[in-house]
Each structure stands twice: as structure tokens, then as C-alpha cells.
Amino acid sequence: MKRFVLLFLSVLLLAGFTFSVTTIEFWHAMESDKVPLIQNMIQDFEALNPDIKVKLQYTGSYPETLNKLVAAVQTGNAPHIVQIYEIGTRLMIDSGVIVPVQDLLDQDKSYDVAVLLEPILNYYTVEGKLYSMPFNSSTCLLYYNKTLFEQAGLDPNRPPQTYEEVIEYCRILTKKDAKGQTLQYGLTWPTHSWVIEQLMAAADAPFVNNNNGRTGRATEAVFNNEAGLKIFELFDQLNKEGLILNTAREDWSASDENFISGKAAMLFTSTSDVRIFEEALTKNGYTLGTAFLPVPDASVSGGPVIGGASLWLIAGHPDSETKAAWEFMKFVTQEEQQILWHKGTGYFPTRKDAVKRLHYERFYAENPNYFTSLLQLLLAKKDYNTAGAIMGVFQQARDTIETAYERMAAGKMTPAEALAWAEKEVTKLIKEYNSIYQH
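Above: the chain sequence. Below: its structure as C-alpha cells.
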């Protein structure tokens, strides 16, 4: 059918028909192997929509993309679509520069958002309104090296499930040479607050008040709670015993390499890199394992928070261009596109029908590491804690929490002191932001 449509359009062009082409600009923050996947989506879209041209532009990391958008809006050169990370949700809503996706949905009854996975849909829905289109959705996973588990005498099919087991496994997996130099660590991570946020949700604990900012604007941080303290105490113990390999702050590449090379047996990071880890570990003679996030004890049952990013429509463009941008946003969330995106990365397919098709085709039976992340999401408790926090100063909050962690790791603060200081500072940031944007 697709070939017929393309052939029909080609015949029309040869017969002398012309199209008035509408050009839209799409800013994104994807890198490396993910870029060709997006380019292929654009090629397929343009082939089916010869009257629309999509200009793709890489704008750096998530924070860099957000900063460039602010500058572009001020100069009147904003794109039509921009990929913004999940924690930018509150700021984008407050910015006044967007066209809420809900506005287009209300006009276009051909798209039923009920096809989207509920946890993903819920994250970007605020006060009953969907503001952006889910695109690349992820959560945090515990990756582990099955080969190193076997070599250490651990069951490769039983990853740690509680904090106590994480410490126990790390003690077994950490290896030193005769001089006391560590050759292999039990765990590594990108020294990123995102992991702490994910562990908080898995422990079914809130991050900010007013139900994580879901039933009212967040006015203060509340992560200095029992769950938060247990997380900080877990990392403190790992650091004191030399069981964890920290990276520079938010250094995803370094933690990935620590894991891929076998320098660390376990890793906290995003589901989005399942394919990369499977290929890289196999090349190094290892077998990859994936596991749910650990919890304080077996009686706790929360779940991960949606990470990644979504697509936002920017206001100030002619209606014809906004409608063209909307058509593209609908296209990239179609079943076929989401399946290709999922297989090529590890980001969740955002649609229920895509999950069903992958199941019927035995993709998950043959690729269990892709299924771990999806199962963790679908089995999660449905409440405000797992819906994820929203606040306008999330990036600054992350910086603060990472500072607190580094001070604790350096022995300058106890876990309780670090957590209390971070919560106090983040609350100040929230109040300052609200004094400007609250209305």
C-alpha cells in the first residue's frame, strides 16, 4: 500500500502537478545512532506528504536545547517543534510560548490518545490537559553483567532486588589486586540526580509537595523523607566500602564505558541504550542482564518515572505551518514508527498497539532485555509518586542534589545532612520560581 501511494504521487508530479511546500523546523537533542532513525522517519513522512518539508536540526543536550529555544523565542526564530526533556514540562507550560497538543487534539478527532500507554500519557498530562506529544520515553534500569555474576558465583538470573542485596552483591563483585587497587567495582552510575529521582519513585515516595506538583503547583521539596535517607545511606555505604565507581557529574559516557569494559559489574542508567549495551557487551565476550530498580525492602512497591523527552509545538507560526507540524508529530507516534524507534534504541514504544504487535511477533520473547523495562513500567503502582514530579526549577534542583551527593561522597556531610541541605536549597529555588511565574 505504501509503495502504491508513493508511485501515485510520483505519477502526479511527472504529470505536471505541483505542490505548495510548507517547511517546518524540528529541533532535537538525540545523538549518534539515534539520528539516522529520526532522519529515516522524516524521509518516510516527506514521501507520504510531499507538500511538507521537515528541516532537522541538532541543538545539543537537553539543557542546551532548552536554552537555545529561549534565545530563539526572544529573537523570533523559534522552531515549530522542539524536543524537550521531561523535567522541562512545568517550565514549558509556564512559558507562554507553546501551543498545547490538547488544542490540536480538540480540533482533530482522527487521533485518539487512548492508544498511548497510560504511564507515558499521564506524565505529560497536567490538570487534565495533554501539553506535549510523548516521543522518546524511558525509565531507569539496573543493568548487570551476567558473565561477571557467574564468575563471582552469583546466580546470573537473580539480580539484586533490595538495597541490602545491592550492597551484598557489590561486595562479592568488587575485586582488588595484590596492592589493593580496585580492578572491578560492583556498581557504577553517571552521578546523576535522575537516578535518585527514579529510586525515590520505586520506593513509592514523593519528591515535591502537592502530590508531586500534580494536583497543585509544587511549593516545596519533600524528598528529605525516610525513602530519601535510605537512598543516600545506600550510596554512602557503597562509597565508604569502595564498591561504587563514581563518574564526573552527569557523565553518561564514562559510566557506560565502565560497564561495557567490565570495570563495573552493574550500572544504573536509561532504558534507551539497551541495544547499545547488548551489542557492546557481546563484542567483549559478556552477556547482558537487565533488572528492575531495587527497593529499600521487599514490602515496598512503587515504580519508575517516565524519563526521556516529548515534542512541543511552539506558538507564533502561521496556522498552515502549525498544522503541518502537527501532522509530523502524529506520524512519528504511529505504530510502525514507534516499533522501529523502540527496536533501534530501547526507548519504549509509546503505543499499546505497538506493544501488542511486538508481543505477537515474539520480539520480547526473543529480546528479554527490551521487555524488562516495559514490564517494570507496566507493573508499577499507579499513583502520584510514580507519575513523577513537575516543577519549574528541575534542572537547578538536580544540580543541587548532585552537589549534596558529592559532598557526602567526599565525607564532608553525612547522608542526613546532605539530604536536609539539598531539600532546603531546592525549596528556596521553587519559591523563587513561583514568585515569578505563579498566576
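The mean pLDDT is 93.
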